[in-house]
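Hypothesis: this fold can be encoded by more than one sequence.
Test: take the structure tokens below, design a sequence, compare later.
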């Protein structure tokens, strides 16, 4: 028997070696690709999509909701009371804002989508009945947002990352831009006189030769990939597991995109196996890096809708990520692969020179967007002169076409110019110098306050971008966002996975944030949502048990 197994193994080993040496390079390359995929579902786009299609809907009744972790009857009763209280307070406090949101929902599918995907699906219906959040705001000032009911929230939505320097900074930028642009007005096709200065400034900051203007971050990424394919003559993009690069088909190959993955490899970030794939293949045009992933490599954006247990983890290791980027840079240079830094989110946040400066690694192309528009929509590509050229003089019909009606819109160009000018001001320079130390200290203070209050919540920071993690197993961590809201803090629809601060947060503002999060946490704890902090509670108190329970419920629902 053993001899048979052994001889079979020898055949396989011999075949595999022959495949490598004698000409089954395709099989070998496929094997290398498989090894370089991250083992999670996010690393397997096709499989994730197939499974997603099979996932049945599960929706808890109020009783099931409160009992889903086998809490005692007493705890369940407390939870029901807490939900009734949430219902009453949400209805009273946010009446006008909710009314306006509801009126919009039928005709704004986007709103219906974000409304549904705030929390894990099992809890959606009960939460929508008890604590529907409004999505209409009336005004902003300093670090605050005001809703239609006169409630004032500390803004940690960060306008999807646009708000780096404080909302008043962008208001002032837009006012100045409006004055500068007015003489020419919305004339398109020619360029506003601000453009040469904007181009010069962008070249200096990015260290690149040339610039192109687009209308969103998604478009900037599309253009960067397009020129990379054009100049290398190769088809494939390498992107990393979990990284977001906008909603264009080719860079979003998994769940959420109805098309199957095309000419894209989703590989593991910070992995030697990925470097081996880059070294061995000839079809790779470019590698896309979103440096925000340094906060949670190989994981999707940490949305509360996926917070089924307390397994969310994050950790920013600047030295390790720098080493990874340098290794990637070396392989890309060796293999003629275009290295694209997608700084749409992080550009101008970590450092004036963006992630390139912060990690001390030069890309071949860099995309920017969000904050660079000074409050207006924009996408920008900066790159090496040879890569940015869109034609070949010796082959006049072989062009790389990319133009858009609103590219280089005068108002956007003026807002960008004001934004870039202000980067040179002393207060902003000082901010960049202190940012690492300041935000590390603030995260430390937040965590000390949480620990001091006996709350199972911790922050992990990449400067002013934070993720909240949970230190004890629970099925209800996602509920924290609803308590945080009641205590006057606005988070984006993905919830506690992404807190975005702006530099305008003074120490006093920050202290207020800590106080509100602690108060919200204490209320949530008192209501019995965090089990293991309750000495009398029994129930599912281990992440594995929770996941098994969720899986069992899904299988049961799938089998009808
Ligand atoms: C890294 C990155 N790239 C691209 C995009 C897409 O930008 P936009 O939403 O402006 O299309 C985003 C948006 O969040 C992003 O974070």
């Amino acid at each position: 028997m053993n001899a048979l197994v052994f001889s079979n193994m020898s055949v396989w080993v011999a075949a595999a070696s022959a495949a490598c040496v004698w000409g089954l390079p395709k099989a070998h390359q496929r094997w290398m690709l498989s090894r370089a995929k991250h083992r999670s579902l996010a690393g397997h786009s096709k499989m994730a999509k197939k499974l997603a299609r099979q996932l049945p809907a599960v929706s808890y009744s109020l009783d099931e909701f409160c009992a889903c972790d086998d809490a005692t009857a007493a705890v369940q009763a407390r939870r029901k009371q807490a939900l009734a209280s949430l219902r009453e307070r949400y209805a009273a406090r946010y009446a006008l804002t909710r009314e306006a949101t509801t009126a919009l929902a039928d005709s704004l599918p986007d709103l219906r989508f974000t409304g549904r995907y705030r929390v894990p699906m099992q809890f959606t219906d009960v939460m929508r009945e008890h604590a529907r959040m409004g999505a209409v705001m009336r005004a902003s000032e300093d670090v605050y947002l005001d809703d239609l009911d006169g409630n004032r929230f500390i803004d940690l939505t960060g306008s999807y990352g646009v708000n780096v320097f404080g909302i008043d900074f962008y208001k002032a930028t837009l006012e100045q831009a409006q004055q500068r642009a007015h003489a020419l007005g919305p004339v398109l096709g020619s360029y506003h006189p601000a453009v040469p200065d904007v181009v010069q400034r962008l070249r200096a900051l990015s260290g690149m030769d040339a610039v192109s203007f687009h209308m969103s971050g998604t478009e900037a990424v599309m253009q960067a990939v397009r020129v990379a394919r054009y100049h290398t003559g190769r088809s494939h993009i390498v992107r990393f597991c979990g990284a977001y690069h906008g909603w264009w088909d080719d860079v979003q190959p998994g769940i959420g995109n109805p098309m199957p993955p095309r000419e894209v490899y989703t590989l593991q970030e910070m992995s030697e196996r990925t470097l081996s794939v880059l070294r061995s293949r000839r079809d790779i045009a470019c590698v896309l890096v979103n440096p925000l992933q340094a906060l949670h490599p190989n994981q999707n954006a940490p949305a509360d809708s996926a917070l089924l247990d307390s397994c969310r983890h994050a950790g920013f290791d600047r030295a390790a990520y720098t080493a990874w980027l340098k290794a990637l840079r070396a392989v890309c240079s060796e293999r003629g692969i275009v290295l694209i830094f997608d700084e749409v989110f992080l550009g101008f946040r970590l450092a004036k020179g963006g992630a390139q400066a912060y990690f001390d690694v030069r890309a071949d192309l860099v995309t920017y967007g969000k904050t660079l528009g000074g409050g207006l929509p924009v996408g920008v590509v900066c790159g090496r002169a040879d890569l940015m050229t869109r034609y070949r003089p010796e082959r006049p019909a072989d062009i790389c076409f990319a133009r858009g009606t609103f590219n280089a819109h005068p108002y956007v160009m003026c807002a960008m110019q004001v934004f870039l000018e202000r980067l040179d001001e002393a207060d902003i320079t000082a901010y960049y110098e202190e940012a690492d130390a300041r935000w590390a200290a603030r995260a430390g203070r937040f965590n000390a306050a949480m620990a001091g209050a006996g709350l199972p919540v911790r922050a992990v920071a990449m400067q002013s971008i934070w993720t909240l993690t949970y230190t004890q197993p629970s099925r209800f961590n996602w509920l924290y966002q609803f308590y945080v809201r009641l205590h006057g803090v606005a988070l984006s629809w993905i919830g506690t996975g992404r807190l975005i601060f702006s530099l305008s947060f003074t120490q006093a503002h920050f202290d207020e944030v800590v106080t509100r999060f602690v108060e919200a946490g204490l209320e949530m704890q008192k209501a019995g949502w965090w089990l293991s902090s309750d000495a009398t509670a029994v129930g599912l108190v281990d992440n594995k048990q929770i996941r098994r329970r969720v899986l069992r419920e899904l299988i049961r629902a799938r089998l009808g």
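Residues 1-22 have pLDDT under 50 and may be disordered. The radius of gyration is 25 Å.
Hypothesis status: open.
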